[in-house]
Design a protein that fits this description.
- The structure holds two protein chains of two kinds.
- Chain A is α+β, with helices and mostly antiparallel strands.
- Chain A has a single domain, classed as 3-Layer(bab) Sandwich (Archease, Possible Chaperone, Chain: A, domain 1), CATH 3.55.10.
- Chain A contains two helices and nine strands, in the order E-E-H-E-E-H-E-E-E-E-E.
- Chain A is globular, with a radius of gyration of 14 Å.
- The mean pLDDT of chain A is 94.
- Chain B is an alpha+beta fold.
- Chain B has one domain: tRNA-splicing ligase RtcB (Alpha-Beta Complex), CATH 3.90.1860.10.
- Chain B is 34% helix and 25% strand.
- Chain B is built from 17 helices and 19 strands.
- In chain B, helix 4 runs antiparallel to helix 11, helix 8 packs antiparallel against helix 10 and helix 10 packs antiparallel against helix 11.
- Chain B is globular and about 65 Å long.
- The mean pLDDT of chain B is 95.
- Classes of the chains: A alpha+beta, B alpha+beta.
């Protein structure tokens, strides 16, 4: 069994993926890779870029939306994509917090733009594969 | 899960899911559809989402669903709901990520016979002047203070800067500007996404399309609208680009806390909302109006670009080449309107998500020339199929919050369309049937194939039979430009 992976799901009007990973931190990274694959994002050769992303939210799902939304912004506005992630989640009072060190490069090409990351059916759950989630993207 | 037997048949074109169906419903669901169109959606979540939408606080009347419905998030696409102003809620999920996605139609006196040798040239110029596709920038770039003016003024900014006419604004919903827009409630991130995109189409299902007016159904109203059988027209379908998407993203996140603060229980997180008389509700209302104005301005600049393409193609060859605006409508928006409920005039926020305003004769806000006819309604079909011009009716004011359908509605997932349809073959088929295609992406083209959508003629027949719009003209595509 793959320790982490994603597959595209059928959705009438938009795009959806199912993502799984043994560990929660890896789930976030795999969601990003799944989104990159849907977009057909190709990174340029050459110097890499690094970025830190931090967020606080009500729950893990809101952190996931915030993280992936950040990547959507980076792709559209800064023309940058990321393919390596070092992710940590922890509780902060009544909230959840996320810290990501990410590495990537300028985007060489993107086939399709994602407008937004939605909360539709979004529920991170524990399964035999570790953690799983389905995400729907507005395109 | 909703089964066919849970629906109550009111007429061959109207159905109801009663309030008693689920104990958290505040109002019933009223569905405009034929049995055949309903059967197409029983496998997706449209009806379940319509039922979920009925749980919003402050709802009045019924949640209405149009025959082009399909699964969305929160609300179904094709959904209309009204909440009482000011204490009822406003929900970004009832308006959509692409705030003020809409359609503009411009008509000409150019006869197809005279134009046909030049359609290729026209399509090439439209493709050149109307930026489309992933990552494209618009025809103007503005700094943030100037962008704030766009967000406040909408199409009026375009007019002031030489990109339109007074007639264009008069023939745009709300005159191309929603009052009460608040650029301060639009995040810096949203402004960064939008500032370089004014006057661009984007990608997905957005397009510029050259059509011929194929058939007129109401000659008197067609004449008022300037539609001439056998002559060319142009449709522009797009919205608020990255700015609107970010506004909705920001407020769906923001309102996750608001619903807890106000004790609102919801079956779907995409239905998050806030009462309109709260700081959060007012903030979203101000930001949504700002994004809507961005979209009006965006379509105004694209119309200017389309006029440039027509001028370069036809001005030295024939008279009467000018494009005159028929109307511009929004199909993802929230508006404060006054409607009659049980004999009383009530101010409500009408959420339209994949539904078009269809005000009847005598309704407020229509320009003088449309006061007697009712408001033009623009219904684009899927690529390669017909589009329609309809007109609003008094029945729509009574039965559907002054609303009607917005398009064909999808039936096939994008992943299935990409697997089963080849974009290059589809393009060839369209070209062989006389439709010039400029597309930025073949996989994107495949996703928008006609077979991925419902039959728009069936959708239009339904709204016409139900009385919530009337047919004026049917348009046939000649050229499509999309990202």
């Amino acid at each position: 069994m793959e320790s982490a992976g994603f597959e595209e799901l059928a959705h009438t009007a938009d795009w959806a993926i199912r993502v799984w990973a043994m560990h929660l931190a890896d789930l976030f990274a795999e969601c990003a890779r799944g989104m990159n694959a849907l977009m057909g994002a190709q990174l340029a050769e050459g110097p890499r870029v690094s970025r830190i992303f931090e967020a606080e939210g009500l729950d893990l799902e809101s952190l996931l939306v915030a993280f992936l939304s950040e990547l959507v912004y980076c792709a559209e506005h800064e023309h940058a994509g990321f393919d390596h992630f070092n992710t940590q989640t922890h509780k902060r009072g009544n909230a959840q917090a996320l810290f990501v060190e990410m590495e990537g490069a300028p985007l060489a090409s993107v086939n399709k733009t994602i407008k937004a990351v939605t909360y539709h059916g979004l529920k991170i759950r524990q399964t035999a594969r570790g953690y799983e989630v389905e995400i729907v993207f507005d395109v | 899960m909703i089964r066919f037997q849970d629906l109550k048949r009111i007429s061959p074109y109207e159905w109801e899911i009663p309030k008693s169906f689920r104990n958290d419903m505040r109002v019933p669901v009223r569905i405009f559809a034929t049995q055949k169109l309903l059967e197409q959606v029983m496998d997706d979540k449209s009806l379940e989402q319509a039922v979920n939408s009925t749980t919003l606080p402050g709802l009045v009347g019924a949640v209405v669903v149009m025959p082009d419905m399909h699964q969305g998030y929160g609300f179904p696409i094709g959904g209309v709901a009204a909440t009482e102003y000011p204490h009822g809620v406003i929900s970004p999920g009832g308006i959509g990520y692409d705030i003020n996605c809409g359609v503009r139609l411009l008509a000409s006196s150019i006869e197809l016979g005279a134009a046909e040798p030049y359609i290729d040239t026209l399509a090439t110029l439209l493709n050149k002047y109307c930026p489309s596709g992933v990552g494209t920038e618009g025809v103007v770039r503005v700094n943030i203070p100037e962008l704030d003016k766009v967000l406040r003024e909408g199409s009026r900014w375009a007019l002031k800067n030489g990109y339109g006419t007074e007639t264009d604004l008069a023939r745009t919903e709300e005159g191309g500007c929603l009052e009460g827009a608040n650029p301060d409630k639009v995040s810096q991130r949203a402004k960064q996404r939008g500032r370089d995109q004014i006057g661009s189409l984007g990608a997905g299902n957005h397009f510029v399309e050259v059509d011929v007016i194929e058939q007129i159904f109401d000659p008197a109203i067609a004449e008022v609208m300037g539609l001439k059988e056998g002559c060319l027209a142009v449709q522009i379908h797009c919205g608020s680009r990255g700015l609107g998407h970010q506004v909705c993203t920001d407020y769906v996140q923001e309102l996750q806390n608001a619903v807890r603060r106000y004790g609102i229980q919801l079956p779907d997180r995409e239905l998050v909302c806030a009462p309109m008389d709260t700081p959060e509700g007012q903030a979203y209302l101000g930001a949504m109006r700002a994004a809507a104005n961005f979209a009006f301005c965006n379509r105004q600049l694209l119309a200017h670009s389309a006029r440039r393409a027509f001028e370069e193609t036809f001005a030295d060859k024939m008279k009467g080449w000018e494009l005159v605006q028929v109307y511009d409508i929004a199909h993802n928006i929230g508006k404060i309107e006054t409607h009659e409920i049980d004999g009383k005039r009530v101010k409500v926020c009408v959420h339209r998500k994949g539904a078009t305003r269809a005000f009847g004769p005598g309704a407020p806000g229509l320009p003088p020339e449309y006061q007697k006819t009712g408001q033009p309604v623009l219904v684009p079909g899927s690529m390669g199929t017909a589009s329609w011009v309809l007109v609003g009716t008094k029945t729509s004011m009574e039965r559907s919050w002054g609303s009607t359908c917005h398009g064909a509605g999808r039936v096939m997932s994008r992943s299935k369309a990409k697997r089963e349809i080849r974009g290059d073959q589809l393009r060839m088929q369209l070209e062989q049937s006389g439709i010039k295609v400029h597309a930025g992406s073949m996989s994107g083209l495949a996703e928008e194939a006609p077979q991925a959508y419902k039959d728009v003629d069936a959708v239009v027949e339904t709204v016409a039979a139900a009385g919530i719009a009337r047919k004026v003209a049917r348009l046939r595509p000649m050229a499509v430009i999309k990202g």
